[in-house]
Specification:
The structure holds two protein chains of two kinds.
Chain A: E1 3-5, E2 10-14, E3 19-21, E4 24-26, E5 31-38, E6 44-50, E7 56-58, E8 64-68, E9 73-78, E10 87-95, E11 102-104, E12 108-113
Parallel strand pairs in A: 2-12
Antiparallel strand pairs in A: 1-4, 3-9, 5-6, 5-10, 7-8, 8-9, 10-11, 10-12
Chain B: E1 4-7, E2 10-13, E3 19-25, E4 31-37, E5 43-51, E6 54-57, E7 64-66, E8 76-78, E9 87-94, E10 107-108, E11 112-116
Parallel strand pairs in B: 2-11
Antiparallel strand pairs in B: 1-3, 3-8, 4-5, 4-9, 5-6, 7-8, 9-10, 9-11
The chains are: A mainly beta, B mainly beta.
């Protein structure tokens, strides 16, 4: 079985400040890791993913996440946030076993304040 | 434009009624999924289908049913047996990848918000 824990349900931050959204996972097999973003009343959009190779992955809009196997973490960071980054962010894990279900965390609401 | 459409966007249902949520994709994806989203609980998998005429129960399948008669379509029926159906429902699709592995990116539709009156 696998699980995902997002430690913060709400993260308020001022515009142009840095932000870190935390994600920890547990799994008995090797995993693939994802961050999705959801704007109000919309579906989810893939922000970035770790499948293999370099442990630091980046998105096109300035977010990055680092896969840390020893700490079983995949925290999402951005050095300077914008008002438009206000959204809910979901961390998800896909195990490499036969079940292969995508398991989501409970989400973190990022609110960027002017 | 390729993508996933869900209809209706908002749906109201009286207690005891069955309702069907539509999900259509023109991405030529083999795999399709239904998730339920409740505040503070993230997404939970209801059903998924890896190929036409085949589907599997997810974590919370009780009170729901699906069909997969066409590659493009994966409708979800919320039956009267579902005790707490008010939620936001999301449909997704993905390619199957090599050897049937479901490791590829899932693309999501815009969702249907179901409210039971």
């Amino acid at each position: 079985a696998q699980s995902v824990t997002q430690l913060d349900s709400q993260v308020p931050v001022f515009e142009e400040a840095p932000v870190e959204l935390r994600c920890n996972y547990s799994s008995s097999v090797s995993v693939y890791l994802f961050w999705y973003v959801q704007y109000p009343n919309q579906g989810l959009q893939l922000l970035l993913k770790y499948l293999s190779g370099s442990t630091l992955v980046e998105s096109i809009n300035g977010f990055e996440a680092e896969f840390n196997k020893s700490q079983t973490s995949f925290h999402l960071r951005k050095p300077s946030v914008h008002i438009s980054d206000t959204a809910e962010y979901f961390c998800a894990v896909l195990g490499s076993g036969s079940a292969r279900q995508l398991t989501f965390g409970s989400g973190t609401q990022l609110t960027v304040l002017p | 434009d390729g993508g996933i459409t869900q209809s209706p966007k908002y749906l109201f249902r009286k207690e005891g009624q069955n309702v069907t949520l539509s999900c259509e994709q023109n991405l030529n994806h083999d795999a399709m999924y239904w998730y339920r989203q409740d505040p503070g609980q993230g997404l939970r998998l209801i059903y998924y289908s890896q190929i036409v005429n085949d589907f599997q129960k997810g974590d919370i399948a009780e009170g729901y049913s699906v069909s997969r008669e066409k590659k493009e379509s994966f409708p979800l029926t919320v039956t009267s047996a579902q005790k707490n159906p008010t939620a936001f429902y999301l449909c997704a699709s993905s390619t199957r990848g090599l050897a049937g592995n479901l490791h590829n990116e899932q693309f999501f539709g815009p969702g249907t918000r179901l409210t039971v009156l």
